[in-house]
Amino acid sequence: MSEPGPESDLADAHAGHERALEAVEEFGESKLRQLANAHERLHDLFERYEDRATGTGDFGGFVEFRGGLDGLVSGLPEDLPHRATFEEVEDVFDKRRLNEADFERARELLAPVEESVERLDERRAARERLREARRAAEARIEALDDEIAEYDHLLALSEVDLDAPVNDLRVPIDGYDDAVAADFADYRSRASAREVVAFLDRADWYPLVETPDVPADLRSYIANAAVGSEPIPRLLEYADYSRSKLNHYVEDADALKRAVATRRTALERIDATPFLIGWPPPPADVLRFRLRELRGVIARFAPEETIARLREVRTLTRDPDYERLRRAAEARDRLDPRERRRLRNGAVAADREAAIEERARLREALDRYAPTIASS
After folding, report:
1. Which whole number is the average pLDDT over 29-33?
2. Are both 176 and 108 inside the same structural domain?
3. Tens of pLDDT along 292-335?
4. Which structural domain range is residue 67 located in?
5. Do 306 and 176 share a domain, yes or no?
6. Is there a domain that residue 45 lies in?
7. Residue 276 φ then ψ, to 5°
8. pLDDT higher than threshold 70 for residue 375
9. In whole angstroms, how far apart are CA 134 and each of 131, 160, 341?
10. Structurally, how many domains does the chain consist of?
């Protein structure tokens, strides 16, 4: 017996769909639909007349019910499945006075009819289960694609020299990152919010430097309100004041509350993150282009010392050893002790092969059941 999962679910759903199709074909879809229609009409007839036709209270209802029942049964095709059952039901009501037990008996007789009619619903449900199983199998294949790509990445990292002197890269990169972070923190603390927003607008010309967006309403407030000449930390401080206290510092306390207090996250996101290189660094060609753009952006707030650190990093990207050191840094950052053990003992390679085999089986199963799935 196969273990539960998309593959076995697909096989089970296919088998269930085949059984449901055969159950319908036993009678024929057209005949079953005629039977379902007749059963529904009879059910409606019971619903309308059961209370009126029983007992002695409504002779007219009794007559209408008997007439409707006779018309329904006499109009059924001779070759309709279970036609004899409908005739038996009619015989149950062939009496002068009806009671609730007669309707109960009629419903008991109709149980086989209901079972047959349900084959259409069962086929519909089986069709949906098959479609859901197909979607689950396709989703699992996509997940396996991602897993296999990750295994490939890990196996590639296993070939890296983990003992390479990565500090040759880390020291200058950290030196630049620390310096530019301090520079921007200082700039943010003393420059007006209006100036910082204008700086971010100019940075938009450099697509590789992804600065945060400032919402339009906050941008408008900073541009037009007198308090926009204050630094961002001061605006955030004001936003925490009560309205009565705030009235001593700004012209319109409500306007500041609306513009700043509700958008404080947008202001707090304005930090040095877009100007950092980070660790591990990207490939040399990617970093070179980004450093070129960073040079144009940070010149607005960073001193020459920081720009010199940036140039030093850019020089490193042309070093033949850069990619080897970068890959070693990536591997050391990416591989925790458990993953290193799994690489050494072959577990990653084995898991990769298992994922490839599972993906192949699922693809084969989808191909095998494709005609059934398409027709459903």
Report:
1. 87
2. no
3. 999 999 999 999 999 999 999 999 999 999 999 998 998 888 88
4. 6-123
5. yes
6. yes
7. -85, 155
8. no
9. 5, 40, 36
10. 2
